[in-house]
Amino acid sequence: MQAEELSYAIVTPYSTRKSRTGGIVARLISRTGLDLVGSRMFAPSAELAKRYAQTIVTESDPDHRATQELIRDYVLKNFTGEINGQRPRVLFLIFRGSDAIEKIHRAVGHIVHERTRGETIRDTFGDYFTDSSGKVTYFEPGVLAAFNADAVERDLKLWAEFSDLDGGILDRAIEFPPGMKVEKTLVLIKPDNFKFPNLRPGGVIEVFSRTGLYIVGFKVHCMSVAQAEEFYGPVLTVLEEKLGPEKGRSAWEEIVEFMAGLKPSKCPPERREKPGTEKSIAIVYQGVDAVRKVRDVLGPTDPAKAPPGSIRKEFGQTIMINAAHASDSVENAKREMAIVAVAENNFKPLIENFYRRQ
User: Fold this and answer.
1) Burial 209-247 (b: 16+ CB within 10 A, else e)
2) Using alpha carbons only, what angle is made at residue 156 by residues 170 and 194, rounded to the nearest 5 degrees?
């Protein structure tokens, strides 16, 4: 059996601004079959952009080298500065699996002039235009990636080095007019979307893009039993009052099991604080009236009662298996973000631990 590899894809600032994140994530997961194991939002500093750009041009073949030079110049121009009151935000995604580097390569593709068949991510989300003399007049790669093991390791270690300084919750990356009701809210893309590699996680993000809000935080998270107990603690009282103590407790334990992989009553004490077996994605959205906008797009808890076009109508199955969670107030958003430690840097140790074992 082939050894597991890490690979990565960076969603560019333009793709992030244009809310193409969901479509890109959907294709990366569904077309590669790889496990999305890490992620982090970055607002790259000039130093990070410079050091990353210095690594890009390696080919001796003139055609491939010319493309790499375009990518290098793109990074230097677009990864720093400010555009319409926004600092560039990039989403860095880490994938793990057999032959991961080649699978990401095939999914991302190359930038090819006037090729628009949509076979690869760059076919669909990238642009490459030239004038009559062949000079490139517009270039947008959509995503960035490296396609050999040495380059992947080098790039992952570089971004890990800057992951505390330049990454995390980018709540100062966007300027808003004075007096606006700017909020941050938490979304959890639930474990039912990750039972097998498919379009659903990206599809849910795609629907949330209708809100016009900004993604300022993004974390792959495996909720521990202890975290799930605290996160859904307020629900226990409601269920016990509605169903009675015994049935209410049983229903609540099923919720914890769904999110963390184990019922509290079946969890050994030494496992309560450890990451669970079920995967979620925690996303922080920021913008005007963010809590209400996200809740409106999400729809009511019961998918059967959700309106057409809402996330829970499109992706939900039952009251528990309903695709996503969203905070219902600014106060609860703060509480929930603290519980799942959404600002925690689990990106850096993931990279360091993987290469330490090699």
Assistant:
1) bebebbbbbbbbbbbbbbbbbbbbeeebeebbeeeeeee
2) 70
The 3-state DSSP class for residue 331 equals helix
- Residue 111, pLDDT above cutoff 80: no
Question: What is the reported pTM?
Answer: 0.95
Q: Is 218 part of a structural domain of the chain?
A: no
Residues 151 and 236 in one domain: no
Rounded-to-integer distance, Cα 228 and Cα 26, Å: 26
Tens-place pLDDT, residues 9-55:
999 999 999 999 999 999 999 999 999 999 999 999 999 999 999 99
The reply to whether 211 falls in a domain is no
Note whether 95 and 8 are within 8 A (CB). Answer: yes
Does some domain include residue 297? no
Specify whether the CB–CB gap between 203 and 189 falls below 8 A.
Answer: no
Section 172-197 average pLDDT? 95
Asked if 11 and 96 sit in the same domain, the reply is yes
Domain membership of residue 234 as a residue range: 230-271
Last residue of a domain, which of 271, 299, 331? 271
Residue 1 is part of a domain; what is its CATH number? Answer: 3.30.70.141
- The distance from CA 165 to its chain's CA centroid, rounded to whole angstroms, is 19
Partners of 127 in the β-ladder: 140
Is 325 annotated in the active site?
yes
Q: Do 144 and 251 fall into the same domain?
A: no
Determine how many CB atoms are found less than 10 A away from the CB of residue 57. 16
Q: Which residue has tokens 């380059």?
A: 151
339 occurs within a structural domain:
no
Name the residue type at position 306: A
Contact of 126 with 142, CB cutoff 8 Å = yes
- Tens of pLDDT, residue by residue over 136-156, are 889 999 999 999 999 999 999
Tokens 């999110």 correspond to what residue?
Answer: 259
Total domains present in the chain: 2
CA gap 330, 334 in Å, rounded: 6
Mean pLDDT of 178-194: 96
